[in-house]
Amino acid sequence: MEKLNIICVDDQREVLSAVVQDLEPLSNWLNIEDCESGEEVLDLMDDLDAEGESIAVIISDHVMPGMTGVELLTEVSRDNRFKETKKVLLTGQATHSDTITAINTAGVSHYFEKPWKAEELVSCVRTLVTSYIFDRGFDYQPYHEELDQNVVFERLR
């Protein structure tokens, strides 16, 4: 069974804590990591990759000091080790052009505006992780009960 990680990044601790808390229903089968900067995410990804762990989803705020969320997700999308990693932009301050850039250059799978709905975020992450498992060719059976059954059905057809 692959060890699957979700990485959440936001420079505001209270927002980051809220995202992690909202994802708690997934913590019985996914490891949820939190970071406060893009640089911290890249270091964590290197460490997890070196340990043979997989990064299924990154959920990033956009407006952060240093490296923006779009810059982070674009950098991740250019790294062949993480080409299957799914990306979510979670922000209240991205412009229309930021959103287009995120989709076109960073391969963002989903965009949420703050405040988000917890059940929609959890559902989105479940769907993205399910796609990630199939995209990577992992055995889905150990996770079967937790996966998005619509995606499983589509992938097995």
Automatic annotation (TrEMBL):
Biological processes, Gene Ontology terms: phosphorelay signal transduction system
InterPro entries: Bact_response_regulator, CheY-like_superfamily, Sig_transdc_resp-reg_receiver
Signal peptide region: none
Residue list for modification 4-aspartylphosphate: 61
Keyword Methyltransferase part of the UniProt annotation: no
Pfam families for the chain: Response_reg
Occurrences of domain Response regulatory (ranges): 5-129
Keywords associated with the record: Phosphoprotein
PANTHER family per UniProt: RESPONSE REGULATORY DOMAIN-CONTAINING PROTEIN, STRESS RESPONSE REGULATOR PROTEIN 1
Annotated protein name in UniProt: Two-component system, chemotaxis family, response regulator CheY
Species, as recorded: Vibrio hangzhouensis
Lineage of producing organism: Bacteria, Pseudomonadati, Pseudomonadota, Gammaproteobacteria, Vibrionales
